[in-house]
Design brief:
146 residues; alpha+beta; HIT family, subunit A; 5-stranded antiparallel sheet; 3 helices; 18% strand
């Protein structure tokens, strides 16, 4: 898929809207439009990369460092007991751009298999509230690590 046709590249360029929770030079994280649970994020490299195997070595650390930080932030912001962090490569990859799912989890939360059931945000304000909570938890964690 050409970068020009990629939905996640459009978000990274600012040409498409998203509820962005993390905006860094190499990576971007935003709320999934069809979340498993509120707080479900998609973390993407800004560069168009289709699969984990295609990820250049110099982007591995920024991507996985961000995934680690986001997992902590999502758990804190969403008062979750844990998190689910996953990558699909081609199969079940609805957008052919590498993305890491970071999902808040609770015991007996009803998740059946992987990525079911899907839910929605009540409205744009609910999505913005969730995004702001995650961004605040991330900023707090980043300030504490300095």
């Amino acid at each position: 898929m050409p970068e020009s046709d990629c939905a996640f590249c459009e978000i990274a360029r600012g040409a498409a809207e998203a509820h962005v929770a993390l905006d860094e030079p190499a990576v971007l994280a935003f709320l999934d439009r069809r979340p498993l649970f509120p707080g479900h994020l998609l973390l993407v490299p800004r560069a168009h990369v289709e699969t984990l195997a295609d990820l250049p070595g110099e982007l591995v650390a920024p991507l996985f460092s961000a995934a680690q930080r986001l997992a902590r932030a999502v758990e804190r912001a969403m008062e979750a007991e844990g998190s689910f962090v996953a990558i699909n490569n081609r199969v079940s990859q609805s957008v052919p751009h590498l993305h890491v799912h970071v999902v808040p989890r609770r015991r007996r939360d009803g998740l059946r298999g992987f990525f079911r059931p899907r839910t929605t945000y009540r409205d744009g304000a609910h999505a913005e509230e969730v995004r702001a909570r995650i961004a605040a938890a991330l900023a707090e964690a980043d300030a504490g690590s300095r």
